[in-house]
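Ticket closed. Logging final result for Mg chelatase family protein.
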Amino acid sequence: MTAAALVGGGSYPQPGEISLSHNGVLFLDELPEFERRVLEVMRQPMEDREVTISRARFTVTYPSSFMLVASMNPSPGGYFNDPDAPVTSSPAEMQRYLGKISGPLLDRIDIHIEVTPVPFEKLSEDRKGESSVEIRKRVTAARDIQTKRFAEIENVHYNAQMNTKQIREFCTLDVSSKALLKNAMERLNLSARAYDRILKVARTIADLEGVEQVGGNHIGEAIQYRSLDREGWLG
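Final structure:
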């Protein structure tokens, strides 16, 4: 995929995939397989929720408020940190593979989840998990909470849209929660942008629980979702 196909462009500018995904989901499979320069053009639209294309005679602005969902293998061979793997990758191959995704782009992704291999016992067990219907009810309740929270604020409808001032207002922390977040910021060498995103995610976790105050358990869980934007992916 080219940069123009992703953000839009051409002699007669047309919207790209990020604008076609406005108010929806943009799913990018095998993220490191995209050219780095193509991925980098998403950084500003993800921040501003719009993309501007300039030409000699005119400028066009398209909306691009989308939810980015991306997937990737943990290594070129797909068996990162597995001693029994049939295929292994050298440190140079790993660095080249992971280096295709920049730190500033990762900073703009709220949640990073590592999906570990599922053992046979888990695949074959009969125990049922929480149903999609129950999960939907909990998510809907959390969205209702956010709708009421931002009812008086223009152009803000849910936690992800909060600016820095609103984060400070709606994500107040007690002393122990601040100490936990401070320790994580220093230990993982996280950026200021990651700090704000941790608070947004923690606020959402609290909303899913129906709790008004963001606590240490919410901060701790949100920190666990920021594993890939630390300095040095290889540990």
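Residues 231-235 have pLDDT under 50 and may be disordered. No further action required.
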